[in-house]
Design brief:
Blueprint: H1 3-21, E1 30-35, E2 40-46, E3 51-57, H2 67-84, E4 91-93, H3 102-112
Parallel strand pairs: 1-4
Antiparallel strand pairs: 1-2, 2-3
Helix pairs in contact: 2-3
Length: 117
């Protein structure tokens, strides 16, 4: 097994562990975050109805700067969209990623806008 295959396998196992414990409802949806090398995407998901309540992404937007800055701006954007849908608390789904750096910047920006998790 190559190092890359092992790394991806470990990440998918971490993701499975997190998703087994995290479940979003209409009152407290799941905030799912996906961070790639180029873009950031965040969604508020109601797992009971399997419905996306709000989403924010850097794809197609004119965000510039470092990835940490892009993550912070997506965090503020998803928090503002959550306020429009009258959501104040969420369950944070980190998708198997370590809570640091880019993911931490997104979470801190969302908290500053008033989102609780």
């Amino acid at each position: 097994m190559t190092n890359l295959a092992k790394k991806l396998l470990n990440r998918s196992l971490r993701k499975s562990r997190v998703r087994a414990k995290v479940h979003g409802t209409a009152e407290r949806p799941r905030l799912s975050v996906v961070i790639s090398n180029m873009h950031v995407s965040a969604q508020l998901i109601d797992d009971d109805k399997q419905h996306t309540l709000a989403s924010a992404t850097s794809v197609g937007s004119k965000l510039t700067g470092r990835m940490t800055e892009k993550c912070a701006s997506i965090g503020t954007e998803i928090a503002k969209k959550a306020k429009k849908v009258k959501i104040t608390t969420v369950v944070f789904d980190r998708n198997g990623r370590q809570y640091a750096g880019r993911l931490g910047a997104l979470a801190d920006a969302a908290r500053k806008e008033g989102l609780e998790f």
